[in-house]
Amino acid sequence: MERRENLALIGFMGAGKSTVGAALARRLGMDFVDLDGVIAGEAGMSIPEIFDREGEEGFRERESRALRKELKGAGKVLACGGGIVLRPENVDLLRERCLVVYLRVDRNTVLNRVGEGEGRPLLAGGPLPRRVEELLSEREEKYLRASHAVVEAGGRTPEGIAEEIAGIWKESW
Description:
The chain is of the alpha/beta class and 173 residues long. The protein has a single domain (6-171), classed as P-loop containing nucleotide triphosphate hydrolases (Rossmann fold, 3-Layer(aba) Sandwich), CATH 3.40.50. 55% of the residues lie in helices and 14% in strands. It contains seven helices and five strands, in the order βαβααβαβααβα. A five-stranded parallel sheet has the order 2-3-1-4-5, sandwiched between helices. Helix 1 crosses helix 7 (158-171) and helix 2 (35-43) packs across helix 3 (47-70).
């Protein structure tokens, strides 16, 4: 595998990207970047507020800009939002500049972790289990195509997942 400058975690909401990413960055001595946090900070509003004011398209535009900006540097672990794979240009950039790891979780894990879906605009508009199932099935193939490696993240500790990914990172040298 060709060496990449950064490591990116992708996957569905509730997969643990932010928690695992922070643990992984500590373990590898890299900088941690939560892309949704960068977007909210630059916008001066929360992700749900961005969705309310600008719609999903406005949010996706901000997400693509933030990704381009963050990937100008190296030595980062990025926790990407669940929809980062919806734009092909994001996937191309991630695969070019990062070792991309898909944290895979099943529907039940997502439902246990997201609670009532508060603060997650894309889970509105129908019964929560159905919305989760729809979005998971829509995105699964995109996550698989975007990733260099898949790590099962359900029922595991963030440290255990970070340890596995650190091993994948070190093998890619």
